[in-house]
Amino acid sequence: MEKKPKIVILGAGYGGMMTASRLQKSNAHRDADITLVNKHNYHYQTTWLHEPAAGTLHHDKTRMKIDSVIDTNKIQFIKDSVVEIKKDEKKVILEKGELDYDYLVIGLGSEPETFGIPGVTENAFSIRSVNSVRLIREHIEYMFASYNKQDEKHEDVLTFVVAGAGFTGIEFVGELSERIPELCKEYDIAREKVKVYSVEAAPSALPGFDEELVEYAMNLLESRGVEFKINTPIKEVQDGRVLLADGEEIKAQTIVWTTGIRGSSIIENSGFETMRGRVKVDKDLRAPDHDDVFIIGDCALIINEEINRPYPPTAQIAIQQAYTCSNNIKALIEGKTELEEFKPDIKGTVASLGGKEAIGLVGDRKLYGNSASAVKKLIDNRYLFLLGGMPLVLKKGKLNLF
Amino acid sequence: MEKKPKIVILGAGYGGMMTASRLQKSNAHRDADITLVNKHNYHYQTTWLHEPAAGTLHHDKTRMKIDSVIDTNKIQFIKDSVVEIKKDEKKVILEKGELDYDYLVIGLGSEPETFGIPGVTENAFSIRSVNSVRLIREHIEYMFASYNKQDEKHEDVLTFVVAGAGFTGIEFVGELSERIPELCKEYDIAREKVKVYSVEAAPSALPGFDEELVEYAMNLLESRGVEFKINTPIKEVQDGRVLLADGEEIKAQTIVWTTGIRGSSIIENSGFETMRGRVKVDKDLRAPDHDDVFIIGDCALIINEEINRPYPPTAQIAIQQAYTCSNNIKALIEGKTELEEFKPDIKGTVASLGGKEAIGLVGDRKLYGNSASAVKKLIDNRYLFLLGGMPLVLKKGKLNLF
Description:
The structure is a homodimer. Chain A has helices spanning about 15-25, 50-55, 120-125, 130-145, 165-185, 210-225, 265-270, 315-335, 370-395, and strands at about 5-10, 35-40, 40-45, 65, 75-80, 80-85, 90-95, 95-100, 105, 110, 125, 160-165, 195-200, 225-230, 235-240, 240-245, 250, 255, 260-265, 280, 285, 290-295, 300, 305, 310, 350, 360, 365-370. By secondary structure, chain A is α/β, with parallel strands linked by helices. Chain A folds into two domains: about 5-110 and about 260-345, FAD/NAD(P)-binding domain (3-Layer(bba) Sandwich); about 120-255, FAD/NAD(P)-binding domain. In chain A, the strands form nine sheets. Chain A has a six-stranded mixed β-sheet, with helices on one face. The first copy, chain A, has a five-stranded parallel β-sheet with strand order 11-18-12-13-14. Chain A is globular. The N and C termini of chain A lie far apart (about 55 Å). Chains A, B: It comes from Salipaludibacillus keqinensis. Chains A, B: InterPro entries: FAD/NAD-bd_sf, FAD/NAD-binding_dom, NADH-Q_oxidoreductase. Chains A, B: Its cofactor is FAD.
């Protein structure tokens, strides 16, 4: 009997989780030993994390046990952290062991991009995991709880700086501006004591997005008390203080960093050639010169040839890549050599703004308010449906559409 | 027309609030100008505060707007803090003004007793106000939230020291031990990582209380994972560390101080003669040599002549004093000179232990578990009934008796 090929999937984010799910559904485990490795025993929806970070949604709604979606009799699950990929030895070093592979899928996600600005890692929070957003939520509440216990009131305790007005930054500010009135009530604090700054280096919030929609979003958030500092690069982050390039300084005990991401440093450290931590993959999603390594999600760089610039890393693309990746692995273990090409099919972009508010662009159609918010929830629910069918939608979905 | 006498009540705790309520009910405001002064615009039940501190009850359940109980058309309410009482000038200095009085009621409550142990004020929390217990609750949650974000796990983050195993300390430990399993679930932490120490200098927990009941309480709390250090004085409290007299040291990021109270320092600073901040009042509750000043609640020292020791300051005594005090004021403004003597009528003592557990002594009868817990809730509800009738019981009461 021939030895079954070993497939190892690193990371259970959108890409890795969906690849595992597709392989299981296509019965690939009959012809291959498939192993999924993840740091936690749960999968979470990264694009929802701004909500538990602000405290408007419980974090359990954004995550699910991996073995509730993947049948671990069919796909082995290992809870461990990846230390290094030894691609020449076809081996993965984990904290507590190692794994050989015939085919590897790298879906290790991202890290915050600090652009080398000093003090970010030490002094700012980032929205990137269940653990990190739970801490942000509790930190915010702790700030409110401590204010009335201070003998001398320090306003920086109630000042919140969100660095970066991209999608994550804007969505977080949206949730935060919805939560603040509740926190003011809970802790007996007047709303006007609380300051929220959205700071962006580029000349616009949501750089590159439709101008009319950006204006709608900014007006809405300003009406909830958010102050924008656009075209304002950050020079340095210190403990309790943000130094802006224009010389101004904002004292704030809460600084949340959302200026974008780079691919996981594990990839760079394992000897792959990267740009901002991302590998420019071949059309079939394999790493150049590595026919046995697929790279998907935030770690993969795909060029949008229409504008000759990379697609921004999104959940939408990661999920679509998982379909191509799992089809190609299935083909390879069936002995085929012709692989599918990955072609992103961007269905639209919607940013939630907290409450029942959102903005979106679906094709050429602009969406505002309620309808954009409902579309956003449909997108979130559709992912759950693709991953775990109707039961998962009912369990973890956003069912209050309007 | 004769000028109405001015009655000023300082503090809206059990004593002050009930005095105001009794004066209003007896229509004393027809014959006198009555003013109630309090730091906050709400009254709270101090004896419940261990619950919101542990996070097992929302703090709004322990407080009520003063004007929801007192008719401010009948009794003037001033939200301000007392700075000093100038008793020779019959005047009270507030932060934002001053008040003259003909009769003064001092119900300014208490401060934590530190026994001069270094570092307590700077490094320990205390259970004494809505603001302080909200901070404790959030601090505890923050500790749990930060644990999984630490690169190196520091166990002191999940170590909780409660200094003092008197009623407040034991009741707080009871609630905390009920809450910890929930927090472990919420933050993905194994229960055995969490340590709770109850440290007491005296040779027993709940010093002076019935031994059998104390043993019941300790066994129960130990079964929930609490570690007792009895007969163990504390030498010093440092940032993140408790030094015990026996040379041991406990590293803990959360230290809650519950070793007893002393009367408000305002009284001492205003020239009254005090013992641990409390004034040994005359039988009619007036301060010696000050016929126009009544002192009630935690600021008043009453000797239990049977054992020649002071009664411990309790809500029960404060409430009973308010009855005597309001009767005596009423008598004075009606021109009577014969005043009522205060005689405490101790109906019993019950300590809650979290969940449906409690211990109690009512007369000679010992109560355990469910029945003690139900009696404790009846006591809490009875107070609400005396203060605001059935509507207040329904709004703020503990209605899940069993």
